[in-house]
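Margin note from the TA: students keep mixing up input and output lines. Inputs are the sequences; the output is the structure of the whole complex. Example:
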Amino acid sequence: MSGEHHSSTISAQVRRVEALLEERGLLAPGEVDQRIDEFAAGGTPANGARVVARAWVDPGFRDRLLADANAALPEVGLSMAGGLQEQRLKVVANTADVHNVLVCTLCSCYPIALLGPSPSWYKSEAYRSRVVRDPRSVLAEFGVTVPEATGIAVWDASAESRYMVLPRRPQGTDDLDEAGLTALVTRRGLIGTALV
Amino acid sequence: MTTTPFAPGTRVRTRTADPDGHTRLPRYARGVTGTVLEVAGHHPLADDRARGLDVPAQPVYHVRFRAADLFGSGEHTVTVELWHDHLEGPA
C-alpha cells in the first residue's frame, strides 16, 4: 500500500463515486468533507495529554485506564464513540522495564478521537516497515534513547483496537499541577516515539 | 458464540495461507508462534467482510511475538491484533 494517494487510481475512483452520488442527490456537495470534519472535530493530542496527566496524579484512574480504557475515559470527559461505532482503546504504560511504541503496519489506524489526525511519518512506509523490525534504531532517529535494560514492545494496530502510550512521568515534576503536567505531554509521547 | 476463545497465556501459531484478497494477518507474522495476551472483543473477520461476506463475530486477540521468532533477530516484542481464524492453537 502506498503512502501517497493524491493521483492514484483509488482516489480517482473515490472522486467519481462521490460525483455520481451528488448527481443522484444521495449526497450533498461537500458532505463527505463535512462528515470527516465532524468526525475529527475535538480530536487533538491535548485530549491524550489530559488522560496521561490524570493518570500521573491519580493512581486509581491509572489502574482503571490500563484495565479498561473505554470505561475510564468518561472520567475526563472523553470517549471513543465519535465514529460509526465505539472503538476499543488499549492504553499501554511505559515502565522502567518496557517502552511501548505504536504502529499500523497494514495502513494507518490511529485513535483520531484522542490524538487528532496522525502525523505524516506515522503513515509512511519507512516507519511502518522498519519500526516492527528494528524499533531501537527507529527510536534513535527520533532522538529517543531507550536504555539497554529496558525492553521495547511494539504494538501493531492490525484490527479493531486503537492504542495510546502512557509515558512515564518525568522526574522533577512534583510541583506541577494537572494542567502543568498536561502541557508536558507530546503527540509523539502518546505514540511512543518520544519519552513524554 | 460458537467459538471458544483462547485463554490468555495460550501459545498459538498463525496460519501460513496467503489469500488472494485482503487479510489482516500481516505477512511478517505468518506461520509464527506467539502468546495470547488478552481477548480484545469479538468482531466479524475483516478478511471476509472485505469479500462482501456477512459473517458472525469471532474472538479477536492481542498476540505477542518475540522479534527473534518473527525476524530471526531482535530483543523486542511485537504484539499483533489477530482474529481467531488467523490462529491455530495450542501450539
